[in-house]
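Example 3.2
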Amino acid sequence: MRYPEFLKENGTIGFVAPSFGCDEEPYISAFKNAQNKWKEAGYKLDLGPNCYVAEGVGISNTPEKCGRELTEYYVREENDCLISCGGGELMCEILNHVDFDAVKKAAPKWYMGYSDNTNMTFLLTTLCDTASIYGPCAASFGMEPWHPSITDAFALLKGEKLIFESYDKWEKEGVKDAEHPLLPYNCTEPLNISMFAPDGEGSMKRTEETSMEGRLLGGCMDCLVNLLGTKFDRVNDFTEKYKEDGIIWFLEACDLNVFGIRRAMWQMENAGWFQHVKGFLIGRPLNGEAMMNLDHFEAVLSTAGKYQVPVIMDVDLGHFSPMMPLITGSMAKINGQKGKIQVSMALK
């Protein structure tokens, strides 16, 4: 596994928009405020040509221009790391225009983003054997003040912190809008993590304490199942290469409802992705309301339970903020106890 150098003091932060750009409020003001904060802290900035663009469908520009920007800004020496401007809908369409051979030959560089950015964070790891950060996009760093999760994400980018703990509350309904672009997360809901462990008889039971250890791999399920079976799917080669470490799958869902989540789990299982799995870390689903006697727990456990490994659900990961930043490709130890978890990552 290739690990990039962490962002140094007075280093240069690069920005790209392979999915949506910061082309409307509240994202324009938030992104500009984030830039001001980084400049005041002594960092230089390197903005890609699509950062403020809205010329594409579901992404900032045409697939060709987005793919070219992502490749050029990853391999160029003018920046030390990349943060995506935002998520979106059709980042998958740029992949045919990303030169992954050039990316693999270039010096490894941290790339941070989530949601649609799974198309880069996941493929950097599975195609290029390069670690990435599943974490907040650029505009989130414009909030005043920073939520601890944003502080954590930047500390990770600088290499100052590799151990993270779940946060006390989460945001069910955001209050940031065009008139109030710099408002922080509106965290009102108490943390309510659920942990499951094998019961010794082939089923799963709730538990107050569990742990898992393995190599982190995952992202947004909506994007992952879209990649499955394409020429970009090298997951089974990756998991076989690291079978001695085992895989911790971290997964979260955006548009998928509980039936979509269950179908996605079935699809990944039958593609062989879960071979060598050591545990599952599941984020709060954005559209996880129960439907026709299926809740979001059983949507996951119907498949994950077959592997008789720990499953931790409703963790701080994904579209319901805040989220713990995770290094895709890193070795992790995850300990859960009394409704909270700690994630400790190692670069090996």
